[in-house]
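User: I'm writing a short methods note and want a consistent example. For UDP-N-acetylglucosamine 2-epimerase, I'll paste the sequence; you return only the structure tokens, no commentary, since I'll be parsing the reply automatically.
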Amino acid sequence: MVGARPQFVKEAMVSRAARRLGAWRHVLVHSGQHYDCNMSDIFFQQLEIPAPDHFLGVGSGSHGKQTGEVLVRFEEILLSERPDAVLVYGDTNTTLAGALGAVKLRIPVAHVEAGLRQEPRDMPEEINRVLTDRASTLLFCCSERGRTVLADEGIRQGVHVVGDVMYDLYRTMVPSLDPDAALRRWGLRRGAFALATLHRDFNVDRPESLEGILRGLCRVQVETGWPVLLPLHPRTRKRVEEFGLQPFLEPLHVTEPLGYLELLSCLQECALVLTDSGGFQKEAYFAGKRAVVLMPDTAWRELVETGWNLLAAPEEGAIWRASLGALDPYPYPQELYGEGRAAESLVAVLAGASFPS
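Assistant:
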């Protein structure tokens, strides 16, 4: 079950592996929590993404309304399909609703990206993660840290470290990247620019934190002499205008939001990443780039604990100090998220699992 584009793409990797291995009959349910009608054709072509078997059309809404509507509509699908197990991904309201719907009907739940934890503990995504892990029979971790976290919480049965499906995706998409075209389009030189993304509500919805981050990006540009490429998220652009912070954008290399392939193409050739995106901080690691993570904490703590990525507060000095640290030579921590065969490993475990009838 999926509810947003990142989950859709992860599910595509798993369903493709399941079809290739003849593991089971795969039924795809899309809640419509975030419906993206503009998903690039490249995903459909290269990942062979099928149309959902069931589209719930839930749409946006409050956390309670969204979770409740997914739960009610998904229960009807479960009663008609009678699946052997339900596979859920990540930490959205769809994830929790899918897990609750299944477990209430005594259908085993398999959770992809289990064992992730992040402060503050009361953030909606964190609540969804913890409750989904508690409801799951099979828990698929991206790294050994996930296994350790679950063991500390008393969850030791059904835990499997399979690697990160997003690394599978990254390896699949790399041959489609065109870094030279991206550099030409934006007038950049290889290894002589920083790449930034900024969209988290706790960063952009408060004028003081948004200004602090923009000042930090400007500081990086001034001190290094490199342009900072900032594909500007619509939410961030709106807040910049509301708070009168346009002067802090003017020195930066601001663009419209980039598509997945173009963003990854730029990533291949940048010198430094600054981001508050959970996915992009990992993709930076996949590409061998260190990242300044503009968050008080990250669910991908192994990247910080190994010293590869650095956390930075939304303040000019903190961002520049972390950037200096990230520009220092540092040994690459190998295979934190597997070897790029997470989907196959996951399918093998799930196909071989014995569930009560």
